[in-house]
Amino acid sequence: MNKTLFEKICAREIPATILYEDDQVVAIRDLHPQAPAHALIFPKKPVPRIAAATAEDAALLGHLLLKAAEVADALGLKRGGYRLVLNNGADGGETVPHLHCHILGGRPLAWPPG
Q1: Are 29 and 16 a contacting pair, CB within 8 Å?
Q2: Most buried residue, 22, 24, 28, 111, by CB count within 10 Å?
Q3: Number of Cβ atoms within 10 Å of the Cβ of 102
Q4: What sign for the dihedral angle of Cα 97, 42, 102, 39?
């Protein structure tokens, strides 16, 4: 089976600007930012998407969200606010089949998102 883009980043096969890393998750700068601050955080475990997560992934998902908030704070977004986005499936905008959370901020974000 082929590795996902994020598995390749974890294995250091593809370069990325790493903002945070621990034994469970990695956060990187997005190569195509959609806001002044745009990072991605993803689990090292290759969960394809949120709809494929199981009860076994509950602790990992909680850790991912808590670390996303820490990364947002480190990016200076805590005071003004930010958006966390999980895409699921083609209609949801998913382009990489590896669960990841977008951290967006640094400007007012409109609703609905698109």
Answers
A1: yes
A2: 28
A3: 20
A4: negative
Q: List, for residues 10-66, the tens digit of each pLDDT value.
A: 999 999 999 999 999 999 999 999 999 999 999 999 999 999 999 999 999 999 999
* Active-site amino acid positions: 100
What per-residue confidence (pLDDT) applies to 113? 81
0.85 exceeded by pTM: yes
- What is the 3-state secondary structure of 21-74? ECCCEEEEECCCCCCCEEEEEEECCCCCCHHHCCHHHHHHHHHHHHHHHHHHHH
Q: What angle do CA 63, 23, 67 make, to 5 degrees?
A: 30
User: Domain map of the chain by residue range?
Assistant: 5-105
Residue 26 in tokens: 């990695």
